[in-house]
Amino acid sequence: MSAENAQSLTLVQAVRDGLYGEMERDEDVLVMGEDVGKNGGVFRATQGLYEEFGEDRVIDTPLAESGIIGTAIGMAAYGMRPVPEMQFSGFMYPAFDQIVSHAARLRTRSRGRYTCPMTVRAPYGGGIRAPEHHSESKEAFYVHEPGLKVVVPSTPGDAKGLLAASIRDPDPVVFLEPKLIYRAFREDVPEETYTTELGEAKVRREGEDVSVFTWGAMTRPTVEAAEDLAEEGIDAEVVDLRTLKPMDTDAILDSFRKTGRAAVVHEAPKTGGLAGEIIATIQEEALLYQEAPITRITGFDVPFPLYALEDYYLPEPARIKDGITEAVEF
């Protein structure tokens, strides 16, 4: 990629760039939420959009999550493509009824007469020393609901491409942005608008000994752990799922059939987390390739802790290494 057609962006800048590109491309796209307009969003993900596109397409709303999503559903049903922002994913619970009872069901309820092309953006996950309700990882809530798609990017390039694909999708998408890595690193991102197909995983590191499945902010420490293990003679393959629904089961099974061993890394609590779904899929479809129990390297089954214990709660390279090693040495 040449410097002429790429720009070095952080993940949150790539989100903003993706929004700008889609709003410029399609006048039916609009953003709405608390402080997204004049203030540019709490993380500045919408900075400058209000000045560029005006108050009719960058809408500052009251602090009322259910109202924000309910309004967006109505707009989507009648042909617009709203992108409502929840300031933090932990604030989505008042809007949960609107998302699962109406957005997810609109196509089925109307027998295809109406769809809901709405993308709900939300910063999610821990690691930034935030107060209560700011650090949850509840992606499994939304994956469980038929009618929703769920996307979690881990790089700036994916954030822009996956966001564009989500906005263009005819059905509702929950787009969870790992705020721990909003400004953690930069990469070259194409200046032009582009899409990254939903439902396709990405192999971040190829390996032969064990498959490690992860997403979002856990991707970088997982790759770091895999690189460390390579120096110890363990060749781990790291698969970044990117889209949790639809999940790329072909990529999961192809990797597992190659290695016969696996671990799953996510920051959500272990019980009811998506690691269990991934493991069940492997058991159903590739059991005869399995050589060892599959390990889960996750957050703990407790409310997300504050400050002093936050780093202990989140999987980090040392704990990830231990979990991968356990799968290999069984």
Spatial strand arrangement across the major sheet: 9-11-10-13-14
Order of helices and strands: EHEHEHEHHEHEHEEEEHEEHEHEHH
Radius of gyration: 20 Å
First and last CA, distance: 43 Å
The overall pLDDT, averaged over residues, is 96
Largest sheet: 5 strands, mixed
- DSSP helical segment count: 12
Describe the protein's architecture and organization.
By secondary structure, the protein is of the alpha/beta class. Helices cover 35% and strands 20% of the residues. It is built from twelve helices and 14 strands. The chain has helices spanning 11-25, 49-53, 65-77, 96-103, 106-109, 139-143, 156-168, 219-230, 249-259, 274-286, 310-313, 317-329, and strands at 6-9, 29-33, 58-60, 81-85, 119-124, 149-151, 173-178, 187-190, 202-205, 210-214, 236-240, 243-245, 262-269, 295-299. A five-stranded mixed β-sheet has the order 9-11-10-13-14, sandwiched between helices. Strands 5-7-6-12 form a four-stranded mixed β-sheet. Helix 1 (11-25) packs parallel to helix 7, helix 8 (219-230) crosses helix 12 and helix 9 crosses helix 10 (274-286). The radius of gyration is 20 Å and the shape is globular. The protein starts with 5 loop residues before the first strand and ends with a helix. The mean pLDDT is 96.
